[in-house]
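Please check this record.
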Amino acid sequence: MIRVQRLRITEGDRQLVDLSFSIEHSLALVGQSGSGKSLTLKALLGMLPGNLRSELEIEAPFDLIRGETLSFVPQNPFTALSPMTKIRKQWFASQKRARELFDLLGLEWSLFDCYPPQLSGGQLQRIIFAIALSSDPKLILLDEPTTALDPKLREEMARILVELQERFAFGMLFVTHDINLAAKICREMLVIREGKAVESGPSASVLRHPKSDYTRRLVEASFANREFRT
């Protein structure tokens, strides 16, 4: 289990995020745009902009090292890789490992010699997952990785994520504004607003019996296939 005992992000005297949470299996961090979701990921990755300050206390059974124990899947698969470089030149694990993961994810091996713009959104997202898995990470952070996909591909990626986690047993922090999708992927859920926790618990329980009006509106917006904004 990974315990983020305290995460506090400030900009000058203004507090942007103040959270604590645990990741035992899979945790969805849910909230509208501007709620502090992406800032939380950037703080865990050590990628906060210079004008922000963070206080981070983590208890984990391993060191969080990006590219080794920690992997990151960004929001937009179309901007995640260099468009002018073939996939094989952006792959840093062995070719044997690439073949294993391509087979697992249902990717044709010929795609390894393609440029990213030659791939569909679904193919490219699978390759991003393969790259994230190539180091056998213990924790994967995902920043709304299905936002750029159409609804059918979004459902497919959700299924793939669940299957990958069952196979490789990595911990997962999944950031999204789509509370319905989050419940399909993650066992636990933390709903945040303006950088603070609103409610948390098993995903199915939060989805079916939201305690706060804010969470209820997120649920309604999710089932209406639109993002809730205040």
Observations:
- DSSP finds seven helices and nine strands in the chain.
- The CA atoms of residues 1 and 176 lie 21 Å apart.
- The helical segments are 37-45, 95-104, 121-133, 151-168, 179-185, 203-208, 213-223.
- Residues 151-168 form the longest helix (18 residues).
